[in-house]
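Hi all, posting the design record for the shared folder.

TITLE: backbone redesign
STEP: 1 of 1
STRUCTURE INPUT:
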């Protein structure tokens, strides 16, 4: 594939992969906390919850954090996109070239829906509320995928389409790279996909069962998503498409219809990311592997969702900060 060389790891990403194999290439404080990169999702978290997740907990703990069925459903929609439209799928610095379909017909589409649904069904709900959400997502999954395919076709990425490629950027004054994965891209553009799912209604139905209502897509993108897009834009300099999907609607934000996606605005999000990353690197260097950083940070335990990682982990965090149950 003649354009593949454009997507191979650059020096920043190659150095990151090398540091993962040889921790001695990292600063002492980075080695002690066992953290070798930042990510857009990290940069979007409050300092307190970030410090607990990434300085106090290890990778095994983080794999045990509770997620939710909405996240799994969003991943299932992305997986459907890879199955139908992906030409090159990346895992780290490795890739697989997919054999293209000679023709996309109902048989192919049904197979994609089935595979995406099977992937979604691997998720195990964490509680009764999540179980109800899981069922509602399942009922709307195929329709959401269909809506995504309409939006994808409207954007019109040119083949070959690359999926899940890892990118890396170095921010000003920072030591650790920011690492992310791009959902879909071609030589000139990329798509960041966000899905929205039904929400539980405040009151049950007359028969006592739970009802869900359809959510609307906001007129303006979420600032957290804009920071993420800015990182990918910095790494690629490609045109960004920030795509929001529900089961029956979608909105495509581009630099032409959204001022926040224009270069000068994206640079502001890069500056914001740099401030956060540099502050955290100085925090890690100052405390040098010790779990004393909590004294410098507000845990913000009243945040509506930041600590939704499992009650046992939130309890550990409260003990770290000296709170009692």
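Okay, here is what came back for every position:
SEQUENCE:
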């Amino acid at each position: 594939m003649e354009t593949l060389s454009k997507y191979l790891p650059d020096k920043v990403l190659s150095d990151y992969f090398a540091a993962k194999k040889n921790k001695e290439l990292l600063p002492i404080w980075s080695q002690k906390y066992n953290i070798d990169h930042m990510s857009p999702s990290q940069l979007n978290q409050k300092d307190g919850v970030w410090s607990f997740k990434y300085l106090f907990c290890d990778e095994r703990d983080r794999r045990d954090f509770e997620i939710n069925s909405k996240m799994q459903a969003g991943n299932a929609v992305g997986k459907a996109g890879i199955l139908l439209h992906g030409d090159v799928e990346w895992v780290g610095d490795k890739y697989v070239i997919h054999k293209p379909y000679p023709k996309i017909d109902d048989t192919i589409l049904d197979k994609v829906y089935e595979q995406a649904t099977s992937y979604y069904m691997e998720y195990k709900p964490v509680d009764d509320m999540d179980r109800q959400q899981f069922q509602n997502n399942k009922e709307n999954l195929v329709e959401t995928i269909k809506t995504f395919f309409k939006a994808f076709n409207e954007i019109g990425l040119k083949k070959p389409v690359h999926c899940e490629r890892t990118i890396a950027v170095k921010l000003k004054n920072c030591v650790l790279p920011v690492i992310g994965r791009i959902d879909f891209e071609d030589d000139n553009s990329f798509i960041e996909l966000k899905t929205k799912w039904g929400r539980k209604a405040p009151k049950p139905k007359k028969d006592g069962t739970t009802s869900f209502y359809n959510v609307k897509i906001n007129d303006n993108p979420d600032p957290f998503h804009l920071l993420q897009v800015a990182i990918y834009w910095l790494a690629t300099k490609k045109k960004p498409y920030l795509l929001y999907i529900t089961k029956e609607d979608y909105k495509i934000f581009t630099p032409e219809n959204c001022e926040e996606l224009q270069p000068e605005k994206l640079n502001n999000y890069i500056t914001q990311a740099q401030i956060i990353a540099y502050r955290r690197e100085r925090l890690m260097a100052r405390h040098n592997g010790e779990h004393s950083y909590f004294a410098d940070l507000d845990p913000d335990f009243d945040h509506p969702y930041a600590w939704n990682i499992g009650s046992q982990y939130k309890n550990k965090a409260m003990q770290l900060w000296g709170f009692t149950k």
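COMMENT: The chain has a mean pLDDT of 95.
Let me know if anyone wants the other runs.
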